[in-house]
Amino acid sequence: MNKFDANDSLDNLASIRQIVKSESRNSSDINSFKKALSKNASPEELYAVAVGIREKRPLEILPDLISLLDELTEDKNLGGYRLNTIWTLTSSVHKILIACIRDGQKPFPSIELLNNIETTLKKLEKHPKVQADRPDDPSKGIRGPIKHSLSWLQKAREKK
Question: Does this model's pTM top 0.85?
Fold first, then answer.
């Protein structure tokens, strides 16, 4: 992949998103996603893996994704990552839950994992940087995919 700046404008990142989406659709290597889900990842690595996970929606990555979000939530600066990257990671959780609950992707998450997802998302929702994201329209910020994920978690519990 070409070098890019994860802090560039969203318009300038559009071509990178398309490349990552295409590569993700054509790849079966989930291990590369797992390796990059780290608080030590560069902004570019984490942004690219977030886009890839959001596109691919691999259920088996959900525990690692939630673990990273939980770790980032503990940091007052969310690990120093751009809010768009955090939004993309959170939106990935939402997309994976849809794939599992609505579309029947297996295996279905355990109650323990569902509870962990809920706890992490509620903690993330209360984070001051998340609260400040898109005060004009919170549903377009990080709180949007959090809200949708929490709704899907309720549907998951109804299925159990």
Answer: yes
Whether residue 59 contacts residue 79, with contact meaning beta carbons closer than 8 Å, is answered with: no
For residues 19-36, one letter each, b for 16 or more C-beta atoms within 10 angstroms of the residue's C-beta and e for the rest, the string is: ebeebbeeeeebeebbeb
Annotate 71-122 with DSSP letters as a single string.
HHHTSTTGGG--HHHHHHHHHHHHHHHHHHHTT--SSPPPHHHHHHHHHHHH
* DSSP-assigned letter for residue 30: -
Q: How far apart are CA 24 and CA 18, in angstroms?
A: 10
DSSP designation for 40:
T
Number of Cβ atoms within 10 Å of the Cβ of 41? 19
Cα–Cα distance, 147 to 153 (Å, whole number): 10
Q: Kindly list the averaged pLDDT for each block of 10 residues, start to end, along the chain of length 160.
A: 84 93 87 91 96 95 97 97 97 97 93 97 98 94 98 89
| 101's tokens | 């609950």
* CA distance to 29, 95, 108, per residue, from 104 (Å): 21, 13, 8
